Amino acid sequence: MAGRILILNGAPRAGKTSLARAVQAEMPGQWINWGVDAFNAALPAALMPGIGLRPGGERPDLEPQMRRLYAAYFAAMAALARQDFDVVADLGLHADYASPFDPMDEMERALSGLAVTLVGVDCALDIIMARRNADPRGGFYAVGPGIPPPVQRWQDAVHAHKNYAIRLDMGVLTPEAGAALLAPLLGVGD
Question: Which of 19, 104, 119, 184 has the largest CB neighbor count within 10 A?
Answer without folding.
Answer: 19
